[in-house]
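re: ur question from yesterday

yeah so i grabbed the chain u mentioned. its 199 aa long if i counted rite. heres the sequnce exactly as i have it in my notes:
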Amino acid sequence: GITADLEATNPFCPGDANGNILVENVQNGSGQYVYSLNGDAYQGSPVFENLPIGSYSISILDHYGCEAIIETQLIDPNPLVVNVGDDQLISLGHEYLIPTQVNLAIDQITWTPATGLSCTDCLNPTATPTETTIYEVTVIDTKGCVNSSSLTITVDNTRKIFIPNAFSPDSDGYNDFFTINAGLDVESILSFEVFNRWG
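ran it thru and got these structure tokens back, copy pasting raw so excuse formatting
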């Protein structure tokens, strides 16, 4: 009986049709061999290319009509998974470190838009948007597979500031000092005036 080995290469990325099957080490037959995939027409080449996932039946036929049939299967590789976490709500002036997780080795990573990001080609950028922004990351792994993920960072632009409307600088230990309390969203005070009750 004819014997042979099959070398099956799965598609690079899920859904691709670039797998192939190579028939090699054909023995115990006579003359020149021809090959058929799933009952299709015979061919002289032992290579079948551009195949999607699925089950395949390889027929090997020798010069005298002796035949061997070998079964094999092509399967989807592990998919590239990208996770950037849940949408976030931050206050104006605050930052958020995006905790990106990827399950395969990365060849390239790109973030868009670049506005408010510490980097656009790193895995875990820090985002400091001044307005609500949808950030999307596109990742290419070492096999050329592509996937993307996005999150929305909603910015609460309510200015966190408290200004007392009175104080009493009479050194009695109560409300002697006037202090403006503000969050990170306030950078500077442009003008500050204090009046007594008579203006």
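noticed a couple things. The longest strand covers residues 146-156. also Residues 168 and 174 are 7 Å apart (CA to CA).
anyway ttyl
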